[in-house]
Design goal:
By secondary structure, the protein is of the alpha/beta class. It has helices spanning 10-22, 33-42, 59-68, 84-92, 105-119, 152-163, 171-178, 188-201, and strands spanning 2-6, 26-30, 47-51, 75-80, 97-101, 127-129, 132-135, 140-143, 146-148, 207-209, 213-215. The protein has a five-stranded parallel sheet, with helices on both faces. Strands 6-7-8-9 form a four-stranded antiparallel sheet, with helices on one face. A two-stranded antiparallel ribbon has the order 10-11. Helix 1 (10-22) links the parallel strand 1 (2-6) and strand 2. Helix 6 (152-163) crosses helix 8 (188-201). It is globular and about 50 Å long. It starts with a strand and ends in a 5-residue tail after the last strand. Calcium ion is lined by residues 8-9, 51, 53-54. The site of calcium ion has 5 residues, from loops.
Length: 220
């Protein structure tokens, strides 16, 4: 899964990005409204963290613009502590949830997981496909209760497929959701990740639909 962090305070932006990466997300960063607007319109994100007080264009304006343009990505707004007014405006402006500053990173991560869970139609916090279980809370994957060790990119691929299980995911879509913007992308490497995941999880786990993409088909 891929997330955009929009926060103009450089250290906070960096801390958020580092924590999100550690939690298994591909992360892009924007330090002002203009950059955020450009990225939100040109890249594909699974969720956005959006500070409301931003240089160039403020967060609330951005949010309204995106919603008007039909950009439905889940947005978690970062608001000033005690500012119920800002919170109401944010949610009415199209935000899906909010966290008041200063916050604990654990709360941001939990709310983000919940947003992605709801946006992808999940009902349970852990994702299950046959004998495979992926727990976004711990970043752990098991196969028939035995732990499976994955690299960060393998985890991102599996996480995206598991959040969208039952659906055919093209290689292009997968590529857009597992790499940060500045990463040197090579769509061939997706095939390599899939091959490694099959070795680790069982060949039948991920189906290839020639010319279309990949699918995890499982009893829910
Ligand atoms: Ca700010």
């Amino acid at each position: 899964m891929r997330v955009l962090v929009v926060e103009d305070e450089p250290r906070l932006n960096e801390q958020l990005a580092a924590s999100l990466e550690e939690a298994g997300y591909a992360v892009d960063r924007a330090l002002d409204g203009e950059r955020a607007d450009f990225l939100a319109r040109t890249e594909r994100y699974d969720a956005l963290l959006l500070d409301l007080g931003l240089p160039n264009v403020d967060g609330l304006t951005l949010l309204r613009r995106w919603r008007d343009a039909g950009i439905g990505v889940p947005v978690l707004v970062l608001t000033a502590r005690g500012s119920w007014h800002e919170t109401v405006q944010g949610i009415d402006g199209g935000a899906d949830d909010y966290v008041a500053k200063p916050f604990r990173i654990e709360e941001v991560l939990a709310r983000l997981r919940a947003l992605i869970r709801r946006a992808t139609g999940q009902t349970t916090p852990e994702l299950r496909c046959g004998a495979i279980v992926l727990d976004p809370r711990s970043g752990k994957v098991t196969r028939a209760d035995a732990p499976v060790r994955l690299t960060s990119h393998e985890y991102r691929v599996l996480s995206y497929l598991m959040h969208h299980r039952g659906r055919v995911i093209s290689q292009a879509e997968l590529t857009e959701h597992i790499y940060a913007q500045d990463f040197d992308r090579d769509s061939n490497t997706v095939e390599v990740f899939i091959a490694r995941l099959r070795r680790k999880l069982g060949a039948e786990t991920i189906e290839t639909l020639r010319g279309l993409g990949y699918r995890m088909e499982c009893e829910r």
